[in-house]
Write a structure and sequence with these properties.
Layout (H helix, E strand, L loop, with lengths): L1 H10 L4 H13 L5 E4 L22 H14 L1 E5 L9 E3 L18 E4 L11 E8 L8 E5 H5 L4 H7 L4 E3 L16 E2 L2 E3 L4 E3 L6 E3 L5 H17 L1 E3 L6 E5 L3 E5 L12 E8 L3 H4 L8 E2 L5
Parallel strand pairs: 2-16
Antiparallel strand pairs: 1-13, 2-15, 3-15, 4-14, 5-13, 5-15, 6-12, 6-14, 7-8, 7-11, 9-10
Helix pairs in contact: 1-3, 5-6
Amino acid sequence: MAFATLAAELATELPREVHAVLADFKLRGGSDGALLLSDAPLDNPLPLTPTSRGAEINLPVSEMTLGIVGMSLGVILGFRGEAQGRLIQPLYPILADTRAQTSSSSAVRLDFHSETAFDPNRPDVLALLCLRGDPDGAAMTTFSCATRVMSHLSDAQIEILRQPRYKTGIDASFGGSVNSEDDPTVSPIYGSETDPGILIDTDLMRAADPKDEPAKKALIALNNAVEKAAVGIVLRPGNILLIDNRRACHGRSDFRANYDGKDRLLLRTMVAYDPWRRSGERRPRSLVQERVGR
């Protein structure tokens, strides 16, 4: 926890106006469920973008920058199944994952999803820091907030989507398998009418009962509504994008990767506003989550 502790200490030195913007985002979720910050400090010079999984990359300034923002909002978290539990994770294209539904893909669109949608204690915020942008300017991070999504749905569809008539799969990196009976049952739309939440994984969510045609049709309508409500942004170096993981889902467009050290390079962390609820303890022993629901 030494890194998180230092980040929390340094967070107190952020300018007052930055604290105010982050506090407002924490309370309201930002415009369209996201907040974009600019001119964040980065390592200079930047190392080359890695091309292989698990590559060592030294980014002390950039990692601390994202850690400070994360600890200003709550507590940063890692998952054992993702990047060996690192609190700050590098994201870059990997040749073996070119067409996979994963953050290291490039040639296919990353479908809309809530971060760790299968986890009842999923993080409140996804934070991305851009170190090196896509040279072609084609890699677009997309997000879609619940209020805009619901404007494209009928009352009848929303009523169905508020019911626990769906299951969402667990990512393979967390030990999941395809269409398991143990997959959690969820409601894709929840919360109040004025401040709704959204829970979605376009690739892994399905009707709990394969014969439930109204639920299946409502899910198709939800996926279409997410597309219609989507907003996209091409991240530039020094941009920090915060996405409210309760009020919005996110994805990414396809782009060309060259694997030449100049590809898009981001850092990612996840933030919990109330981390103590995750472990059932007053103080968690670790900020790295071992398994779903823990």
